[in-house]
Specification:
alpha+beta, Aminopeptidase, eight-stranded mixed β-sheet, 9 helices, about 35% helix
């Protein structure tokens, strides 16, 4: 079975895209460089801790990672996500305010896009989107077309992380928010057969994504129209390589910190599509149309 057949069986064009990550991540992870052997040793200790559920591990799950990430299930989830994205980007100077108070990009309405909702204290406080390359179109192709095509040809199924944001009135973006959201997206992607994860970030943020998930830079810096011309760089990470993940975060990316129910695939309903369509920038272009 060829690659195109596999993608077609999974089933469900380009946009003015937004870089995947929010503009500021203030807390850095441990800067220690770890060899492959070191990863294996730390990995074993991490799994031991995850299995025994010590008091220290319970604190880490409850206090260090207060945000729980779920696939968006309702119009309320989607609207809260788009409002969080709008408020975060406006505050950071990455987009102009909109009359609707939402930041909706065409790819958010695609069937191959999974929007995630981060919740804490019974409030929706964060968001992230994952676009599966099921129809050979990813948002970042607007800026990095050649890079995406190269990754697409080298892997079974690629996907793009995009639109990460934390509500400004909840907290500044921190490493634990990034981990909680991206870990759910990674485990979701793995269940969909994705083996290559892409994103665009500000050049100064490449380092933190390398530390957490093993992202590597795969292209040159370029101005990104989706965020007011700010510089962006394409990055990629393997979804299934356990050695790429920082040992501290293995229980999230490969363990049971993310429950199966949190990453159940969901789709924006036709009612939701009709509701949000008028707010999506560039939706009039036929290449942005939602596949049926």
């Amino acid at each position: 079975m060829g690659k195109s057949d596999r993608i077609e069986r999974k089933g469900g064009g380009k946009v003015s895209a937004a870089p995947a990550m929010t503009p500021v991540v203030t807390q850095a992870v441990d800067d220690q460089e770890t060899s492959v052997g070191g990863v294996d040793r730390l990995h074993a200790r991490a799994w031991t801790a995850a299995g025994t559920r010590t008091a220290e591990e319970t604190w880490a799950a409850g206090e260090l990672f207060p945000v729980q990430c779920f696939t968006a299930r309702s119009l309320h989830d989607y609207e809260a996500a788009f409002r969080t994205l709008h408020d975060s980007y406006v505050k950071a100077g990455l987009c102009d305010p909109t009359a609707s108070g939402m930041r909706v990009l065409p790819f958010h309405l695609w069937r191959e896009t999974q929007v995630f909702s981060g919740r804490a204290d019974q409030k929706r406080v964060a968001t992230l989107s994952l676009v599966l390359d099921e129809h050979h179109r990813l948002p970042m192709e607007e800026v990095f077309e050649d890079v995406v095509q190269r990754e697409r040809e080298a892997n079974e199924l690629t996907a793009e992380l995009s639109s990460f944001a934390v509500a400004p009135d909840y907290s500044k973006p921190r490493t634990e928010h990034l981990v909680a959201m991206t870990a759910a997206a990674v485990q979701f992607a793995r269940r969909q057969g994705v083996d290559d994860l892409l994103a665009t970030v500000h050049p100064k943020h490449v380092r933190i994504y390398r530390r957490i998930m093993g992202f590597r830079q795969i292209g040159e810096v370029a101005p990104h129209g989706g965020v007011m011309g700010r510089p962006a760089v394409p990055i990629a990470a393997p979804v299934n390589d356990i050695r790429a993940v920082h040992p501290r975060f293995l229980p999230w990316y490969f363990g049971d910190r993310i429950r199966k129910e949190q990453v159940r695939r969901s789709y924006l309903s036709e009612r939701g599509y009709r509701y949000f369509r008028p707010f999506a920038r560039g939706i009039g272009n036929r290449r942005y149309r939602r596949p049926r």
